[in-house]
Amino acid sequence: MKIFLTGGTGYIGSAVLRELAGGGHEVVAMVRSQVAADKVAGPGVTPLIGDLMDTAWVTEQLANVDGAIHTATPGDESNAAFDSSIATAAVTAFAGTAKPYLHTGGLWVYGNGSGLSEQSPLHPPALTAWRPQVEDIVLGSDIAGSVVVPAVVYGRGGGLPNLLSQAPRTASGARTLIGDGSQHWAVVHVDDLADLYLLVLLAGRSVGRVVGVNAAAPTVRELAEAVGDELAAEPVAVTRARLGKDFADALLLDQQFDNGYALGLGWTPSRPSLVEELRSGSYAG
Q: Which domains are present in the chain?
């Protein structure tokens, strides 16, 4: 298949790019600069420099591919407009076809809870309150559109676990937790997540929202203990001041998920757990 991919230089996108190219797919990797183009170029990968905010241009590009995966994010206040542009382009370009479009969501939209699943009500924190409306563009259409919902992604030394391994220390040398560390983080290895993207891509239909998450949800304290060193709880107000209120409130969510839907689709996550990776020194502070 010829797949249009955004975010190929990013943490998730680069793993998806490896999976696609390794699986013999032809990838059109949309990037925003020549530096990024040089980074993604390789066997089976054609870089394409452009602007995802140009909906008409993106729609034209999508007319020439067999499917699309969107993993890019600007990481600023333009998130909603950025994601709306590619979602709108995909719904327009793929209308009346069976071409798959995979949009990337985020687990925080479900808010606090245990036993959460794709069917749970959405209670997004302020940081991701914009996501459901954008995802409805995809899920409310008649295309083969799906939303892959990653948990906290780890592996290859990247992702949010670095907030734990590189946390500031107290005057006594203790490593600072995020809050008191009692909150559970739902997590997924980046390479297992890439496997899920390919599985959904090849499903040949919309699977709705599908959560990419490991069965186990360790607490932040358990994760920090795996890094080593003495730990010190941090008052919520201090965590908010250190990381920013909206980001901190997302990291303080207590989430435990059932991954049965993804497993039922044939997903078989097999990489080491985050605790194992932290203990191995992959996230040395």
A: 2-156+186-215+255-270 (3.40.50.720), 158-182+218-251 (no CATH)
